[in-house]
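Lab meeting, item 3. Inverse folding demo.
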């Protein structure tokens, strides 16, 4: 039952709205905070070097404090902020869709937990459909390679 709930678009919309409301409240109150995010949905501009991104975990923690907090913005479902990475403190604009925020923490205490699943990307749906079609084609070819199975199909005139 729970997995059906967290996959529903309506539930996802409520969680995203709640997340945005909490972030807006924290900005209004000038409270620094941290987020735990799903890295696969985050973009960096400019793109960070491989030696830095290879160190990231699938779930990544960002602390919005100091300059990073001051540079942060919430606009149309995207939380963005500037941050420095690596020994050289390479600057990048980090953009995090609200649906990719799994937790919001203040003083290392979670004040928001996002239980919804992220929406599927169109490319994921296309990949799954292609995979399914390839499997069907492969299965049909194996089926037709047996001469005894060919008689199950009507011949076209």
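The presenter then showed the designed sequence:
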């Amino acid at each position: 039952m729970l997995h059906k709930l967290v996959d529903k678009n309506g539930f996802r919309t409520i969680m995203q709205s709640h997340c945005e409301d909490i972030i807006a409240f924290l900005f209004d109150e000038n409270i620094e905070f941290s987020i735990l995010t799903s890295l696969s949905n985050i973009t960096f501009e400019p793109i960070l070097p491989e030696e830095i991104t290879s160190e990231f975990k699938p779930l990544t923690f960002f602390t919005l404090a100091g300059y990073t907090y001051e540079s942060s913005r919430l606009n149309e479902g995207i939380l963005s902020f500037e941050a420095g990475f690596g020994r050289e403190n390479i600057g990048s604009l980090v953009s995090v869709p609200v649906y990719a925020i799994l937790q919001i923490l203040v003083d290392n205490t979670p004040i928001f937990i996002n239980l919804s699943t992220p929406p599927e990307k169109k490319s994921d749906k296309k990949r799954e459909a292609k995979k399914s079609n390839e499997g069907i084609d492969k299965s049909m070819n194996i089926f037709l390679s047996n001469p005894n199975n060919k008689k199950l199909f009507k011949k076209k005139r």
